[in-house]
Each structure stands twice: as structure tokens, then as C-alpha cells.
Amino acid sequence: MRTGPAEGALEGRAAERPLPYRWVALIALGGAALALASTLVGSEPIAPSLVARVLLHEISGGALVPTVCPTVQPVGCSSVITIVWDVRVPAILLAILVGAALGLSGATLQGVFRNPLADPYLLGLSSGATVGVAIVLMLNVGLAYANLTLPLLAFVGALATGGAILVAARSPSSSIETLLLTGVALSAFLSAVLSLLLLYNPYRNLQVTYWLLGGLYGGTWDRDGIVFGGLLIGGALLALYGRALNLLQLGPEVAQSLGVDGRAVRVRLILLASFLTAIAVAFSGIIGFVGLVSPHVVRRLVGPDYRKVLPGSALVGASFLLVANDLSQLVIPDAILPVGIFTSFVGAPFFLYLLYRQRRLDTMGRGIG
Question: CA-CA distance, 31 to 323, in Å (whole number)?
């Protein structure tokens, strides 16, 4: 199919970035190196050589390294394997998967709303998913099947919030300020609902409150498998909409003239963003600003083409959350802090910078400053 002049202009701007796939490859390699280094981080110091032997032994099924620790007593060796393979590695994989899901969700929302400040945390999708999870934890609704009910009710909550945001965004008088204030209002309402749930079962307040701050300490192989499956499905479906997202940036009329049904595409993308947010929140709690920061970093490196922005945002989001997870274990020895604290330390100033820059760029069509 031939490329129209409007679409060609967008792709031409993307082509101005030299070798964009080189940046994506570098981010992927850096993330892989960071993941390996993260296996050394923890409250229990373990020699790097021993960690490497554990990884090679478990990955190869004992073919490459038949004996993990020949100089350590069997009981101590078993503890080392448990710490590395059953505690650290699942948490690292969960950080990678959740960060990738939030990065993809943020990039999708920014493309749908043509709004650089869109983010599942700021728009209230994370809060909606949290209410769904809190219903499971506080009211014991399907708690025996938590691996299924947590993402299911989280998806319902995130989808309801996404629908409300979509209605607000389609208003003729909508603007960045309107969108953000709608998200703030929804988050406040959902926080009130959450407070009622916490009061209903005060004995579980501490557990749920800690979970609300975001943490990856609950990573297990089963949960990693569920999140990986959800990310694989959501990411594969989003990959089909890279060109459509590019055309949406040119305006609904131009997109319609080039064969993209803007209304239908927006609804589908909101569904996918809600699904990815729900999968992330269900097993990690609320982790803010990953979806805000990641797409901006990628666009700086590879340009505005969403066929590159989407996978790049997944990689940057995974690396960002992995660093935050490492810091949560290193700042205070013998304690694991909620990872959401560290993403907020980076994301909140970044959000203020973007908001100030948008006002300077006359986002609402009036001269400012």
C-alpha cells in the first residue's frame, strides 16, 4: 500500500533519527546485563561466582554445572539455591515483566490521547485496578483462586476507569488540564472506595497498605508465568496497531481519510492498556510514573514512530523498574522498601518538567507566559 503524504511526513521525521534499532538493541543488552547484576543484590551476601554457578546449574538442568557448591555443606548449598533461584530470580523477572507492561500501557495511552502526560497512574487506571484487587484481598472474594481473580477484578476496575477517561477525552472542550483533572477526580473517588474497604477489614490494613505502595517481593514462578502470558498477548495485539497510532497523531480526520476508524481503534487500545495495567497492578501493587517516563525516553532516542516506540517503551520500562527494585533493597540494609517510592522520586519531578514545558508550548491554543 502506498504511503500518503501525511503519513509519509510522520515517517520522515522518524527516519531523521540515525539507526533507531541500534538504540533498541542497546537498551535490550543493557537491560539483560542489569538483570544479571541484579541477582547479586539482596540482604544475604552471596559470592558472584556462586550465583553464576546456581544460574548455570538451574538453567541447564545440571548439565553445565553438576555440583553447585562443592565446598559448602549440603544444607547451606540448598539455602543458597533457594535464595538465588526461588527468591531473587522470580522477583527480577516480575520487575522486568511489570515494567514492560506499564511502559507499553503508558506509550499506548499517550498515543491514544495524543497527550504526553498520559499515564496509567496519573489517569487513574492503576487506582481502578487497585480497587478490584482490594475487593479480593479485603472481602475474600475468590481469594482461594487469587492468581485468577486478582487480574480479573483488576481488569474490570481499570477498564471502568479507562472508559470514563475516554468519555472525557472525546468531549469537544477537552484539554490536557481536563484530562488530568478527570484522572485526579477519579483517583480521589476510588481512594474513598478503597478507604471503605480498608475499614471493613482493618486486620488486613497493614498488608494492603504496604502492597499499595508497590512491591515485587511477592514474585513467584507461577505469578511470573501469568504476567508473562498477559504481557505476551497484550504486546502482540498492540504491535498490530503501530501504524494506526502513527496516523492518530495526525488527527482524527486525517486518520479516517487513510482508512483508520479512530473511534474503534481508541476503544480497542484503551482495552489493551487497561488489560496490561491490570496484569501489572494485580501482582505488584501501584507503581507510578513508569508509563510516563519510558515513552519519552524512547521518543528521544528513536523518534515518534510508534512501531518503534512501543517495543522501546517496554524495554525502558523493564530496565527502569529493575533499577528501582535494586535500590529498594540497597538503600536500607536488611530491609526491603516499596519500589513505588523510588519510581515516584524520579517520576514526580519529570512530570512537573513535562507539565511546565507543555504550558510553554501553548498546549491549549493560547499564549502562555
Answer: 10
Type of residue numbered 165? I
For residues 4 and 256, give the distance between their C-alpha atoms in angstroms, rounded to a whole number: 12
d(CA 296, CA 309): 9
Closest C-alpha among 102, 90, 50 to residue 71: 50
- The rounded distance, in Å, linking the Cα atoms of 25 and 226 is 26
Residue with cell 541477582: 39
Give residue 16's identity as a one-letter amino acid code. E
Q: Tens digit of pLDDT for each residue in 110-154?
A: 998 888 888 888 888 888 888 888 888 777 777 777 778 888 888
Distance CA 215, CA 324 (A): 10
Is residue 238 within 8 Å of 310, Cβ to Cβ?
Answer: yes
As a whole number of angstroms, the distance between CA 228 and CA 230 comes to 5
Distance of alpha carbon 329 from its chain centroid, rounded? 20
> Which residues, in sequence order, are CB contacts of 249 under 8 Å at separation 6+?
10, 111, 114, 304, 306
